[in-house]
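Researcher: Final request for today, and then I'll write up notes for the group meeting. The sequence and the SMILES for zinc ion follow.
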Amino acid sequence: MVSHGRPLVDHEVGPILSVGRLTNEAGLAERPWAILWFTNEVECLMSRIEISLFLLVWLMAACDGETLGQTDPGDGASLDVIAVDTAVDAHVPTDSNASRDAQSAPDMNSVQDALLDSRSPDSAIGNHPDGCRIGFSGGSAVGVGFPTPNARLQSIGVVRATILFAEFADVTSDRTPEEVFQLLSPGAEAFFTANSYGRMDLILDPHLVWLPLQENAAHYAAGLTSFAGHRAFMDEAVRAADPAFDFSSTDVVVVMAAPNAQDIGYGPTWMGIPEYALVADGRAFTNGVTSGADLLFWGSQWLNHELGHSMGLPDLYSFDGPDGFTRPFSVMDLINSSAPEFLAWERWQLGWLDDDQIICDGLDSEIQLTPIESIGGLKAAMVRSAGARVVVVESRRAIGYDIGLQDTGVVVSLVDGALPTGRGIIEVMHDRIPLTPGQSVVVDGVRVEIVSRTSMTDTVVLTRP
Ligand SMILES: [Zn+2]
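Model: Predicted protein-zinc ion complex:
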């Protein structure tokens, strides 16, 4: 809570509104928060006591519920959802298979062909997906609910990411822009084509020159700890590129810091709102990403994780420790996991699975699931539990980007929309080994039994004991 937090105060985002996060002593994000920031003129009119009382009331209100996203700052502007994913993405390398990349991308011609006959079979089980579709918490820019905030990046159709390259007053890049771009492309494009079953067409548009930013790298590294500082970093790069680059079709801006700028250790996502969008060539962007030196470790999977945030997905690793809640089953947990494909729930959120590929509350009947990595068929059996909790059952196989998965079978997770990002908002409810026939698990009062399997199916029965 707030009492042990260390506020990171932004003084630059605008004359009225400033947004940041509270962090704990370890520098990890505690929860989003917002304060009104007054201009110097107004500040001089208020005593410190008045300001303190005002901030106390504001923070109590912000921390009292889930309504941060609807707070009206009082000047007519709507504070929608606003946060900066900063220290939360300082991933610590923990796996040895860091170099998994585009080599394992599936054949996209066969992917496209299969899309033509990918409709799932009708099920005899009554299906009411709305019953499992939980709402989006207004307190965060990312979450597990429906729909994702309007300010987030679209996940269907053509998505154009402008890639800029930035070096600094004290750091000249030791690589060409082309060499850095190859760390992302074609790995990122192929990953989203495969995970979306061809529904998302990510296009990376690089501006292949090093843009000389004015300050030392450490200045921009410090800026990553606040919404305003992160925005200013990207805005300077956009301004530098604007005379020579046309941003009129840009959906999201990605600023690649020179990888040898060691002061910038990691690359987080910036999630804005229309009032504080980046603007160029008449286009407004509320999503952006900047890279850090750890790019050389993660490769294109770094961008895949961060664009997941841009589209509204939460972190699934733990903010409290080195482990994750869903490992190895999502790129939103461990970036270089052996099975980094998106979970069924994430794909449903992003519109990559249709409602008729989801069985909601299909109790007491055999349900045959097909692997999440393959196109078509039923992909998840779900049961709505109490509150904003949903038990989710899916099938995983060692194919596609999950080729490194040693054990395959059924994965059972619990989605809890009441939890924040990085705190187990989705959690796999067994160890890292998927379940196989004869095994069962009870989650939130729902028993999941694995009945049988074939090379490309898992049959399960869900009951309430
Ligand atoms: Zn993250």
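Model: The radius of gyration is 22 Å. Residues 85, 88-89, 305, 309, 315 surround zinc ion (CB under 6 Å).
Researcher: Thanks, that's everything.
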